[in-house]
Specification:
Elements lengths: L1 E2 L6 E6 L7 H14 L3 E5 L4 H4 L3 E4 L26 H14 L3 E6 L1 H12 L4 E5 L15 H22 L2 E6 L6 H10 L3 E3 L7 H14 L5 E6 L5 H12 L4 E5 L11 H20 L1 E2 L1 E6 L2 E6 H6 L6 H10 L2
Parallel strand pairs: 2-3, 2-5, 5-6, 6-12, 7-9, 7-10, 8-9
Antiparallel strand pairs: 1-11, 3-4, 12-13
Helix pairs in contact: 1-9, 5-6, 6-11
The chain binds 6-O-phosphono-beta-D-fructofuranose.
């Protein structure tokens, strides 16, 4: 474990990558904990761009009032191309010096953690918090934003169910998740989908989809939901095209898209974000850096950055079987 007892006077917080509901709750918790520990806190603007441009604002207790219940991120976010080049990383590290920061808290997904790793190679003391609606950070059972996005997706599918039931139609619904099927599978179970399609799984479209729909029809179902993760080749549009060619079902495609990223964070996201924000600052005050805050066995803990980035997360096979078990 990387122990660095040098005095911590000033900490910067940034959010990076796709925004996720609950990021603000994490900023709030980390900011207030750090202030209570005697630190000055700075909000770095627009992800790593704020380091490249040495752009940060001082945060006090009041700066993070009334944000626990808001989606998005008050610090703004970005996918910073600058961090892909050694010159960009050096400039970001220089930004840390210019801003007088003793440590940086990075809130984001795997890509953001890779940026943090590069910064730490330049001598910057970092701690990371996983936040992405994809829930695909290998080192943590949970990433901030997942539960809110899931609830948004499930609510949307519930609405589709009403209109499908009225028309006797089928919906092919595409949910986000990048290359992960976590959101799709959880949504599939919670929304009562007949079929869930996730990236990385091989499908026999006749056996795995058409036959399932046919037997659903035989058992009296007048409408069905198919959830397709965006990482499935061609997404919902391609699956719908194939089904139109193979069946006479009346179907509609809905792509939920960025709607899943917005909105009020769920209670679970607020709680996890708050716990993670507090834990991250506690690590810093102990002089422990180069860590990813993680949920492990349901408990808040942490793992080393490089070890954590090597960890992968399987898309739950058990979840997939559960969908199949109850879909008919
Ligand atoms: O990582 C979060 C996520 O919403 C993914 O699910 C999606 O593939 C991607 O971000 C979309 O990115 P952008 O907002 O840059 O279009």
């Amino acid at each position: 474990m990387d122990k660095d007892e040098d005095c911590l006077r000033s900490v910067g917080i940034l959010t990076s990558g796709g925004d996720a509901p609950g990021m603000n709750a994490a900023i709030r918790a980390a900011c207030r904990t750090a202030i209570k520990c005697g630190m000055e806190v700075y909000g770095i603007q627009r992800g790593f761009n704020g380091l490249l441009d040495a752009d940060a604002v001082r945060l006090d207790f009041g700066s993070v009032s009334n944000i626990i219940n808001t989606g998005g991120t008050i610090l703004k976010t970005a996918r910073c191309r600058g961090m892909f080049s050694p010159e960009g990383v050096k400039r970001a590290a220089q930004g840390v010096k210019t801003l007088g920061l003793d440590a940086v808290l990075v809130i984001g997904g795997d890509g953001s953690m890779r940026g943090a790793t590069e910064l730490s190679k330049e001598g910057v003391r970092v701690v990371c918090i996983p936040a992405t609606i994809d829930n695909d950070v290998g080192s943590s059972e949970y990433s901030i934003g997942f539960d809110s996005a899931l609830n948004t997706a499930v609510e949307a599918v519930d609405r589709l169910r009403d209109t499908n039931a009225s028309h006797g139609r089928m919906s092919v619904v595409e949910v986000m998740g990048h290359t992960s099927g976590q959101l799709a599978l959880s949504c599939g179970i919670a929304a009562g989908a007949a079929v869930v399609m996730v990236p990385g799984k091989k499908y026999d479209i006749i056996r795995d989809v058409v036959q399932v729909l046919k037997s659903a029809k035989r058992s009296g179902k007048s409408h069905n939901i198919i959830i397709v993760a965006e990482g499935v080749e061609g997404g919902a549009a391609r699956i719908a095209e194939v089904l139109r060619a193979l069946t006479d079902d009346d179907l509609r495609v809905t792509i939920l898209g960025h709607i899943q990223r917005g909105g009020v964070p769920s209670a679970l996201d607020r709680i996890r974000a708050t716990q993670m924000g507090v834990h991250a600052v506690k690590l810093m005050t102990e002089g422990t850096f180069g860590r990813i805050v993680a949920v492990c066995g349901g408990q808040i803990s942490d793992v080393g950055l490089s070890e954590g980035l090597r960890m992968t997360k399987e898309t739950g096979r058990d979840f997939y079987e559960t969908v199949a078990e109850v879909s008919l």
